[in-house]
């Protein structure tokens, strides 16, 4: 897939969608409840894929869609709070790339021991 959807595209598209409606964004605590609900739906898909017996009539679920549902809520939360997911993601990656740079076993280190 060669499309290049940016954080800014996602921010604007969600904002354009939500802005059509009088209700607007959910208040923060309700949004947090939605985020938790979507996290649970991801857990259900993973549980099914990991051998949990589905309830009667329950399908296996769609991990890609459930992750996207969570991302939608995260974009809503960032928009409503006026924070930048792109800046946050960039700061988070800088953190793991520096703080955790030596935390895990590097593949090249693994190969040189063989
Ligand atoms: Mg969902």
UniProtKB/TrEMBL annotation:
It comes from the Bacteria. GO terms for molecular function: hydrolase activity. Residues 28-103 form the NTP pyrophosphohydrolase MazG-like domain. CDD domains: NTP-PPase_BsYpjD (cd11531). Keywords: Hydrolase. Signal peptide: none annotated. This is NTP pyrophosphatase (Non-canonical NTP hydrolase). It comes from Deinococcus budaensis.
């Amino acid at each position: 897939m060669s499309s290049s959807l940016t954080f800014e595209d996602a921010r604007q598209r969600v904002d354009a969608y939500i802005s059509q409606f009088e209700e607007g964004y959910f208040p923060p605590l309700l949004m947090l409840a939605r985020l938790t609900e979507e996290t649970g739906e991801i857990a259900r898909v993973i549980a099914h894929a990991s051998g949990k017996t589905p309830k009667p009539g329950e399908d296996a679920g769609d991990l890609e869609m459930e992750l996207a549902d969570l991302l939608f809520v995260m974009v809503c939360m960032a928009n409503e709070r006026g924070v930048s997911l792109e800046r946050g993601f960039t700061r988070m990656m800088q953190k793991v790339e520096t703080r955790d740079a030596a935390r895990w076993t590097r593949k090249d280190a693994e190969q040189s021991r063989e």
